[in-house]
Batch of 2 targets.
Target 1
Amino acid sequence: MLSKSQYLYQAKLIIDCLPKEEYDSIPKKTLNYIEENMQVDPNIKINPDISLEEQDIDPQTWKFLKDVVNEVDSNQLYEEYKYEINDYVKDINEQNKGNEARLENINLNNDMDNLKKENQKLPQAKDLIVGYQKLISQKDEEIKKLKQECDSLTDSLNRIPKFIKRLFLRNRNLKALNEKNN
Amino acid sequence: MNTEDKKRLWFCSDYGIEFESVIKKLNKNGEEICIVSHDKQKNWRDISDENKEKARVAEENGYEIYGVGLNGILTGAVVKNLYHNTGVSTLEQVNEIVGDRLTLDEQFISAYALGGAEQMVQLSEKLKMNQKDTNTVIENVLFRNRRAIGIPLEKEAETLKQIQSSGKGKSDYEILVNLDQSLRPHNDEFVRI
């Protein structure tokens, strides 16, 4: 396992073997970072005539080089598309507005349908409430009327001659009524 | 991989945003295409006899036969099925074969095909896009993918409303990712026929 300064030196030796075009694509700040942090080690050597897979490359060197490649790829991607990004996002924004409006419209339509259904129930509920209020308001009057009818019935019963009353009182219900009235 | 000098015949599913983009690209480049349906023709053995014959005749005439969204083999003809492999989307492979350039939109579709919203975020970082623009693009790609799968707008609106009322997502991005996750298990129910 190499130290940081050693694997950076190994990476530098590999990078130096790259064709000019590839070498130039590496950001200057990365090259400077390597230069500033590496340490020359005569024991570390790279043979440009043999593939890297066949040479003793430290795992940290591989990882560092992979990061460099990713950085180069990212930069190239950005350079290729940087002038298109704004127009693309603007276009996408417009599309999204349309999409959102469509979704909102559907939800609004669903809400409207639900409201229509609920509204259909309102007249029935209104009738029920009005009827109930009417019943409540008539309650005392009805009780009074029933009481009067009851009193009138008791008077009538009292006015019946006794012998006829006796006949009726054989009936258990009338007897009970009579006892209750008394 | 570029086979510009060869004649090609493509059999392509139109399921999802990636395959839809593939079809668009093939049409743009004047390629010959037969569209197969995702629900009934996922395998070469299931495609219609007419299309099988078409593939065999094309091969006899020196065509390369490609399958996008198709598995298996076709008896009597050599077919090349394209799949996502080692970080290369089907769309990118098609792009390379026809010798075209990926548009920015296709870059995002490829990223989505390879690794969903997460991969799109990585791509937007490379492109130095801000969070708001990234979310806008992801929202759009997810929306179009649901359209390309065949999820009805009504179902999407209903699910979106449920997510919003349940408070599952706070930001627009969270809501749209929740929406995608909620609808994904039902994707096959909405396959277009």
Target 2
Amino acid sequence: MWQSAVSTPEIDQPRVTAILVVHDGATWLPEVVASLASQTRPIDHTLVVDTGSTDASSKLLKNARLASISMERDTGFGAAVAKAVLSLPESDSESEWIWLIHDDCAPQPGALEALLDAVSERPHVAVAGPKLLGWYDRTHLLEMGLSIAGNGARWTGMEPREYDQGQHDGIHEVLSVSTAGALIRRKVFQELEGFDSNLELFRDDVDFGWRAHVAGHTVIAVSAAVAFHAEASATERRNVDVKGALLNRPLILDRRNAAFVLLANSSWWMLPWLAFQLFFGSAVRSLGYLLAKLPGYASDEFLAVALLLIRPAKLWEARKRRKRERLISSRTVIRFIPPRWSQLRLGFARVVESLRKTILSSPRDSGSVLDVPNEEEDLLTPSTPLRWRTAFRRPEVAGSAFLLFFVSMWSTHRYGALSGGALEMPPFGASDLWREYGQSWHQIAMGSSSSTPPWILILAIGSTLYMGKAIAFMAFFFWVAPLLMALSVYFLLRRFSQNSWLVVSASLAYAISPVSIASINSGRLGTIVALIVAPRIVSYLPRFIQIETATWRMIFGVSLLISILTSFSLLGYLGMFAVSMVGVARDLVEYKRSSNKKLFVNRVQRRLALALIPFLLCLPWSFEALLHPSRFLLEPGLLIESGVPNFTLLANPGGPGSLPWWVISPITFILFVSAFSTAKVRRYSNLGIFFILISVMLSAFSMNGHGSSSNVRIWTGTLLAFATIASLCAGVIILDGLRQRLASVRFHYRHILGGIVIASTLLYVITASGWAITTSAKGPVQANRNQVLPAFLAVTPGVKTLVMRNIGDQEVPSFFIARERDAVLGDADLAPKNSPVVILAVRQLVDGSGIASSRILASFGIKYLYALNPANPQLVRSIDGLGGFVRMSSTQSGIAWKISGISDRLVFTGAKGDAQAMPTLAESAQGTTPSAGTVSLAENFDSGWQIIQGAQHLVRVKNQYGLPQFQSTAGGKFILIHDGTKRRAWLALELLVFLTVLLMALPSGKRKRDVSQEEMQ
Amino acid sequence: MRKRRGFIITGSLMITVVLSNSVSSHVQSTNFSTSYPTVICPPSDSSVTSQTSVTSSSTPYRKIQGKNSAFQSIRKLIYASDGNAILLDQPSVTSITWQGVSGVWAGATLCRAPQSDQWFVGGSANVLSKGRIYLVNSGLSEALVDVALWNSKGPLPAKVFPVHQNSTLRISLDSIAAGSDSLVVRVTPRSGRVSSYLVEERSKGLKSLGGDLVNAVDSAGTDLVISGIPHQRTAGNGISHVVRFLVPGTADAHVRVDLISTDGVFAPVGLDGVNITHGVATDLVFSPTIASTIFSLRIRSDQPIVAGVLTSLKVKDHTDIVWNAASPKLVPMTLGVRGLNPTLVFTGDSILVAISARLTSGKVLKNRLKGSDIAAWRVPDNVSSVDISPSGSIISGGAIISSNSGVATFPLVVGSEITRAAVPNADIAVINR
């Protein structure tokens, strides 16, 4: 059966010695041996090298009566082959070939013949490899030659799970071929001194191919030769015991060897760039592995690079050896190195494929292209031409079309830079939002060191993804918000009914609910986000009862959702916290009854995680809210009027931009009716009624904050969003199958109630959408409003202007200190309370008694006073009359005065009382004090303000107005800073918590050894 | 079960609605502050003595002069001016400034907060008169002031005067209305915190005919009362008074004048229903034959008018002139009278005025003035301030101060009215687009 080693081949006929390297390959060995034996072109000589197999491999080889050489278990593949070649009789023939076979690689019967045919016509070819297919899925194309990418990645050019349909067939010149099934001219092998001994396993094939090329030889891949490869070592099907494999981890060896191959073979001037690519690639992959919760693989990446770096001599030696062997430039292989765009394209394709599988997986996708089509059935099925109109018969399409039309009409005044209502103007770019989030000191009014709310961070991320255009992002967000709301609630309601028309209609009603219309019209960011996120959170609520069944991944995922809600609405967080605490109380009661401690601990751990993680993620902002509890009742943006309690009872939050009283939504009515329905429905109606009642009570109270000292009613939009969702859930459950149920019984009150619910909903949808498109288009939030502060008042960076203006129909002017610009996103949330001294000065300005107002305002660094038209003539006369205010301009927009005296941000006062202004940048400053004296800073007092002069911190005290003042004992250079160490520490902690939660929420990656072979291939 | 559930839900809804509506806080977005604006006392020429009575030596004041903007205590109860106007921060007490040239003339006016409109009915710019206007800018920025004038021929071209910060501008009437016998002046600050004063001194050759501070009225009206006009009877002949009218509108006015005195109420001859041409300063002379030394005039018109009365008196061995201005409705006030013994004259159909005089010793004298048409009360010696509290129907008040130098009058007007201003709210919305 086997060709004997002593058989003599004919002259000029190629002689092939198969070298089979075995290492714990009992699983695949029988088929491998059989495949070798069944070659159509018989193998001249077969030699087996067993590198210390501990499984049944030795026995199998013995039974097959194959001559074998035994070697140590830690022998590498290259050393095993070298040993085998050495044991062969001396030969210098060009027709002497060695055929390398892995113990998990089974060539098809015609493989050797095809390979020999290819090389016989190409005398310059030194290496030829077969087309490698998967061992388990034999249509899966693994390799057709291979290369190496600039970052060390093994490059086959194949798409994930690429199906072999002959698309790569032919004979192709490649950089290298896998050693599995590689046919190598023995003479060349010996000339090149075999595989590099530094590469015990992995990448020895690429290295050999590269060296063969630069030695003037050619490597080809021959598709007519096919071999099936299990890739047992790469997929961790067996231990990697070779000497160089640290901790027996194949990934370390693979990455280390990849780097070695690149650095040993590339031109010297490419080395820095390659080193950077390798390091950067390792870092990115490490991050990816960490996110996939595979820390072992992440550490492997770095260990691999470290292994190489600690032994540079080996690399040096290898380069010297290659220099000796090289006949042509190493640049000759450049054509085989995949361009970067190919790598990107492939990476993108992998991501898309992964997303497609995750998002769009459906039973319909389970069909395979391999399924044999029933051609007869095709012929029998009458073909109907697909008309686009028929698409609108699908409720999802029709609903989306309606909503798109509605939103387009509704948003006619919102295409551009949005502002108005509770919404401040977005800054120009995402970088401004990032900066605002990171800053320790905010130049708003007299300055604030408050923590930036995390919703700024979320908007910064959104704007960054939107090409860094914050203005465009906000406009897009407001446009797309109703669609997102509808989509979000659609996925929730789909659980309650299979009736798409019903679910889609309810989703549309949600998108144009009173709270949705009011929040979009009046720029209530918090409520808009709550309307989008809340349905997703509510969809998890049923799991909250038996929360022990929820995986930790789900708990962390829901925590992230609640964190988003918390970032925008602490009121929403309060609601979720209450739900968690009620759950804990229930668990406690049940524990006392059942004494099942394990269950109790399991549940409480999960509930506490849900309650605390959002709080931790929003640190330190959330912690500050504990110190100022009123923040729990405030949402992002300006404080504007809300509706009265009776309005709220109809689930309409009221305020500017809200639906008028005559557009009555059926939300409360549905909640009331459903309270008498089944237990399942009542669960939602009770929740909805609870939220309505809380909203009604809260809206009876008023409060101030967010840069406003006026009291306004508490906005309860977020709570009403939950009430709306509960009402829709209850409504959908009731209406699902109602027609059939009512048809089967005699006419009674349920018919009437059902009719009223449907009719009132229809009436609401018609009137609300009509009103939104017509009247509310002129709501508070509008695009491209004129700048408030005239440009000439914003010439100097950070210059303060006291702006007075009658807001809305108020007769009394309000005031605020502007810093060079109009209010931008986040300013209201960060705005400090005004000093009582400033308030008194402004009050006296208005009542005409403020002789000293100008002096006080100047001390606060306020340079200008600006009254917007229509300005109260009495006020203007009073300001003109008081003195200290010099008119600069009077235009249609308003009247501007310059405040007399030194009104700079930083003022030095000498011992004799001589004051002089000192230039400052936006926050920090450098300057020189001419002598001993005091340096006054026109910013709110904060422990972060420091002046360093002569390596010493100057003593910081409060001046008569409560502003920071520094005592300089001698003249000299100084530097003013606001120490942001605390802020940076908080940010680091926040990032750490976020990464941890994200890591826990992401799906876990699997180690290769944990993936089934079938799944792998 | 369902009934019970329905009851609970309905009950909860009703309780919540009732509770929320009952506790629903009224959103008060407007707060008000009250304050007394500081008042200005008039400047004077160097030849004129000027004194101001205050009730406390710690009253903050500052001179309106150059760059001086610091307040300091006045340290005296009678402040003798160096010619500069002063700014007094004396809430609730109205101070009197007494001016004059010793043995020649005397005049008085009240220290008042700057007004947005001031009418001076009096003054002339003929060869006999040396009239002047003082424009005092107590603010710390430059002011622009409109000065409009009318004489017996009609309106004169209006002038605009810039007044530097914290300074006084003296304008001679000759320079803006040369040759005008009868003048009415209106001062309207366009911008700035401006007070204005008018002084008239008359002489014939080297002989002085007297002088006076012409008190201002704030607006024209259809029902004016000029209270406390001094009347002097010489042997057999009553002294003539001149009443000057101006109808600032565009229609002529029909005017009826009643003289109110302890002798009765009657229309003086020549003043009972006269037509006054609009836009012209019209002087009408009347010589009432009454025994009273004080009387008042009540002027009714079908058009808004301003009016003043000029009286020429003999004081010791010289003559003095007195300009009486119309008095607004009397409101409760405190008058600082230290060193002065003014005679307070109240005019009204039914007079009921409670007077409380605080002596320098700290004692308080209380008096209750009751009567009809006209009533007078002379402030006794050693009084530092007088509280005047009118009640009942509309009462107007004036005061007369007599001295060896001359006689002065002024209407009883609150110098610094309590100001109620809406307090602006801090709101970042003002800088939101």
